[in-house]
Amino acid sequence: MSAPTGDIGLIGLAVMGQNLILNMNDKGFTVVAYNRTTSKVDDFLANEAKGTNVQGAHSIQELCAKLKRPRKIILLVKAGPAVDSFIQQLEPYLEKGDIIIDGGNSHYPDSIRRTQELEAKGLLFVGSGVSGGEEGARHGPSLMPGGSTAAWPAIKQIFQKTAAQVNGEPCCDWVGETGSGHYVKMVHNGIEYGDMQLIAEAYDILKRGLGIHESEIADIFTTWNKGVLDSFLIEITANILKFNDDDGVPLVTKILDKAGQKGTGKWTAIAALDAGTAVTLIGEAVFARCLSAIKDERVRASKVINGPQKEPFRGDKQQFIDDLEQALYASKIISYTQGFMLMRETAKELSWNLNYAGIARMWRGGCIIKSVFLGDITSAYEKKEDLESLLFDDFFNKAVHKAQPGWRRVIAQAVLWGIPTPAFSTALAFFDGYRSEVVPANLLQAQRDYFGAHTFRVVSGKENPRLPQGQDIHINWTGRGGNVSASSYSA
Predict the structure, then answer these.
(1) What angle, 0 to 180 degrees and rounded to 10, lies between the N-to-C axes of helices 232-242 and 214-224?
(2) Which of 108, 109, 296, 391 is found 20 to 30 A from 248 (Cα to Cα)?
(3) Which of 55-59, 183-187, 425-429, 483-487 has the weakest average pLDDT?
(4) What pLDDT band is residue 52 in, cutting at 50, 70 and 90?
(5) How large is the C-alpha radius of gyration of the chain?
(6) d(CA 1, CA 313)
(7) Where are the beta strands (DSSP E) in 35-181?
């Protein structure tokens, strides 16, 4: 058999797989394509890949035989058992140092396990987030690889050339160890949920609050897309609002208000709860979709539960629209602040060395949350690698302070109108909690100790012999309880 010429293999010829192969081919790499249903390989070579350097394989053995060493194989198959099944099929034909790359939407604990299992056998594993949908896969996605660090030099050129480019820089960098690539993709998707919910709330305020028609709202979003909110999601929102059905009615008004979800936002919210990190905005975005899903119940509730009488807006309409732009910007800053806080906490717990500037750089193009704003986050982490919070960076600190008055006015007005703003409101509540030196958790601790003897600690300077500093204390609040605590203080 002739010497292998394939630079990289790809298993899974659905639309994403086909588009990624064609993209890598365009960048000068020889790709070997394989699919479990081998007729798909022949169809792909005869049609979409006709006239390219793409090679086909009709078995796992043939795929591996056609690849240069170290072999590099991307799996673009359904997350879960299918990934493990293909890994098992590949193993007999691989050698020490060969690399398996999972480009699906796998849950990060699976990627941690697969990295450890394959490294124990002398193989390397990469779990890579891939964002940007079909269009991104074809012309330049955001790629977020993490796993076996030794694999990065071997795949770096292919990944960085295939990825989207912003100002000559690839939207791809090494994320970190084990499951970190898929973890970062999960947080990306959670942030995407938050961005989408914030935009939907802004639309609702403009439509129900100010009574503006979709065509004019589209113009507002188009204007916003030229400023600090310049982003893919704002751009497509303007396009959606301009799109009329055949009868001239905006199509968006005919779409049932029940949002679906695939689960990555929920994964992010669960990860935040597990880490004890207040990622409130993504959580509210997930719950807002859940509330939207009970449409029939909401219809019944609307008939029997009254809100405030709708009063026409008598203020300065343009000023309010400008306030709403600032509210959206400030809330977005909070969402990303929370997302990076979550990544930092998980990195600490799992001993990952995450590349935060690189993560923001990866998201600047090719992906659903791409925006000018992410360039500012990249700069913040380039200036201070161990930045504790985006709100401590001068740029974002000034931006959120400038936005604050309008942000508060918008939420106050929405409350008076009875228009729900779960994402806007939780962003402001987090901001006010985060900037509070003292919060009422002292009362929570007293309550926990009163009914469950869960103990508390005292503030420095308030101690006495009965209340010593730095110790878990239980008080017999009623004179009837005992002096034995149920569990030690935990914060």
Answers:
(1) 160
(2) 296
(3) 483-487
(4) very high
(5) 26
(6) 78
(7) 55-56, 72-75, 99-102, 124-131, 142-147, 165-166, 169-170
Residue from 72, 185, 207, 332 carrying the catalytic annotation: 185
Active site residue 119: no
Strands 165-166, 169-170: pairing is antiparallel
pTM score, whole prediction: 0.92
Tell me the mean pLDDT in the region 95-105. Answer: 96
Q: Which of 40, 66, 177, 192 is catalytic?
A: 192
Cα–Cα dist 106/179, whole Å: 9
| CB neighbours of residue 82 within 10 Å | 15
**Cβ(5)–Cβ(28) below 8 Å:** no
- The answer to whether 385 and 375 are in contact (CB under 8 A) is no
Q: Is 161 a catalytic residue?
A: no
Which residue from 62, 66, 81, 82 is spatially nearest to 17, judged by alpha carbons? Answer: 82
> pLDDT above 70 covers what percent of the chain?
98
Confidence of residue 482 (pLDDT cuts 50, 70, 90): low
What burial class does residue 297 get, using C-beta atoms within 10 Å of its C-beta: 0-12 exposed, 13-18 middle, 19+ buried? exposed
* DSSP run (H or E) holding 314: none
Q: Confirm if 426 and 363 have CB atoms less than 8 A apart.
A: no
Mean pLDDT computed over 55-69: 97
CA–CA gap between residue 466 and residue 450 (Å, rounded): 17
- How does pLDDT run across 135-166, given as a tens digit for each residue? 899 999 999 999 999 999 999 999 999 999 99
The predicted pLDDT at position 368 comes to 87
Contacts of 141 (CB under 8 A, 6+ apart): 20, 23, 130, 131, 132, 162, 163, 164, 171, 366, 367
**Residues 20, 63, 165: CA angle, nearest 5 degrees:** 20
Q: What one-character DSSP code corresponds to residue 11?
A: E
Q: Please give the mean pLDDT across all residues of the chain.
A: 95
User: Can you say how many angstroms the Cα of residue 405 is from the centroid of all Cα atoms in its chain?
Assistant: 28
For residue 170, the 8-state DSSP code is E
Contact, 234 vs 226, CB < 8 A? no
Helix (H) or strand (E) holding 32: strand 31-34
**Quick one: tokens of 404?**
């604050």
